[in-house]
Specification:
By secondary structure, the protein is α/β, with parallel strands linked by helices. It has two domains: about 5-185, Rossmann fold, CATH 3.40.50; about 230-335, Four Helix Bundle (Hemerythrin (Met), subunit A). About 55% of the residues lie in helices and about 10% in strands. Helix 4 links the parallel strand 4 (about 100-105) and strand 5 (about 130-135). Helix 11 (about 250-260) runs antiparallel to helix 14 (about 310-325) and helix 13 packs antiparallel against helix 14 (about 310-325). The longest helix has 21 residues, at about 265-285. It is globular and about 70 Å long.
Length: about 325
C-alpha cells in the first residue's frame, strides 16, 4: 500500500510525510475517522515509508530527487513514498517484517496479554528497519487493563518506537492516552471522488457507481465492498420489500419478515436496510413530506434495534406495522 493509493486524505498524508522528512515523528499517533476512509491504509503506508530503504521523491516537473537529502523541499514534491521494491517494503507487504506489527481485537476486545507482548518487544531496538511500528486497530476496544498498559508505554516511549492507534472517534479511549498522541483526523470522501474511483477500478456504469456511492455514505472502503460483494441480489431483496411497502401488501411483508428472521446472514439484512434507507432518503429529498421522514426514521430505528441484538423477527414486524400506520394516509399512498 502506497500513500498514492489512499484517496481523498491529502492533509493527513502531508502531515505524515513532512514529519518523516524532518525526522520529527511523534512516538504515538491517533488516527480518527469513519470506517473505510483510509486510516489503516495510511498507517500501513506510514510504516512502509518509515522503513523503506529507497524512498521515492518526484517533484512537480517529474524529476527524481535523493529522498534522504537535506535540501528536499516537500512543497514541490508530488510523490513522496516507499519504493515497494526493497526487502523492507516486500516484508511489510507480506506481513513478515519483524519491526512492524498489527494488533487487532481478540473477539470483543484488545486484551492485556496482547499489550504485554507489545511492551516486551518495544524495549528492544529495531531488528531490520529504522523504526519499530505497532498499529493498533479499533483502539477504542482496548479493555481497562490493556489501555493502562499502553498508557504506561506512552509515558516513557522507547526510542525509535512508533505506535499508531486507529479508531472511529475518540470516545472509548482514555483522555490520558489521547493527550500523549498526535491526533490526525480522517474525513468522509466526496461522492464524485468515490464515483470516479468505482468506475475506474471496477469498470461499472455511472448509475451503479452513483448508487454505491450513496450507499457508502462517504466511505471508499464500503463502496469497494459493495462492488466486490455482488450487491445485485441484496438490492433485489430490498427492492422487493420496498415494492410491497408501496402496495401496502403487509401480509406478504410479514411472511418476508419471518424468512429474514431465520436467515443467518445478519450482515445481509443490515445491507438490505441500508439500501432502503438510501431509497427513502432520496425520496425525501425529491418530495420532503413528513411521511417520508417518518418512514426513514422507522427504518433507522429498526437498524439500531437489530444492532443491539433485539429479536430480528420482532424488530421487522414492528417496522412493517409502523410503516403501515404511516401508509394509511391515502393521499400519501397515491404519491408514493
Amino acid at each position: 500500500m502506497f500513500f498514492s493509493d489512499v484517496l481523498g486524505q491529502e492533509l493527513p498524508i502531508k502531515i505524515i510525510q513532512n514529519a518523516i522528512k524532518k525526522e520529527k515523528c511523534a512516538h504515538a499517533y491517533l488516527f480518527v475517522g469513519p470506517e473505510g476512509v483510509g486510516k489503516k491504509s495510511t498507517a500501513f503506508a506510514f510504516a512502509r515509508l518509515l522503513n523503506c530503504k529507497n524512498r521515492i521523491a518526484i517533484d512537480s516537473k517529474g524529476e527524481k530527487h535523493e529522498s534522504n537529502g537535506d535540501n528536499l523541499d516537500l512543497q514541490d514534491i508530488n510523490i513522496y513514498d516507499s519504493c515497494g521494491e526493497c526487502i523492507s517494503c516486500k516484508k511489510i507487504k507480506k506481513g513478515i517484517h519483524p519491526d512492524v506489527s498489527f494488533i487487532y481485537p481478540e473477539k470483543k476486545d484488545i486484551r492485556i496479554n496482547q499489550m504485554r507482548v507489545l511492551k516486551y518487544q518495544a524495549q528492544f531496538k529495531p531488528m531490520e528497519g529504522r523504526w519499530k511500528v505497532y498499529i493498533i486497530d479499533k483502539a477504542h476496544m482496548m479493555n481497562k487493563e490493556s489501555a493502562n498498559s499502553v498508557l504506561k508505554l506512552l509515558e516513557e516511549p522507547p526510542d525509535k518506537v512508533l505506535i499508531i492507534l486507529i479508531a472511529q472517534n475518540k470516545y472509548g479511549i482514555l483522555p490520558t492516552i489521547i493527550s500523549r498522541c498526535q491526533v490526525i483526523k480522517f474525513n468522509l470522501l466526496p461522492s464524485d471522488l468515490i464515483i470516479r474511483s468505482l468506475k475506474e477500478k471496477y469498470n461499472i456504469e455511472e448509475k451503479k457507481a452513483l448508487f454505491f456511492s450513496r450507499l457508502s455514505h462517504g466511505s471508499i472502503g464500503k463502496a469497494f465492498s459493495c462492488c466486490e460483494e455482488k450487491m445485485d441480489e441484496t438490492k433485489k431483496k430490498a427492492d422487493l420489500l420496498i415494492s410491497k411497502m408501496k402496495k401496502g401488501d403487509f401480509i406478504s411483508l410479514f411472511s418476508e419478515s419471518e424468512k429474514l428472521s431465520f436467515s443467518k446472514e445478519k450482515e445481509e439484512l443490515k445491507k438490505i436496510l441500508n439500501i432502503m434507507i438510501v431509497f427513502y432518503r432520496e425520496k425525501m429529498y425529491e418530495n420532503p413530506t413528513s411521511e417520508y421522514i417518518k418512514i426513514l426514521e422507522v427504518i433507522l430505528q429498526t437498524k439500531e434495534s437489530i444492532k443491539r441484538n433485539i429479536n430480528v423477527g420482532l424488530a421487522l414486524d414492528e417496522m412493517f406495522l409502523n410503516v403501515n400506520k404511516i401508509m394509511e394516509n391515502k393521499k400519501f399512498a397515491e404519491i408514493i
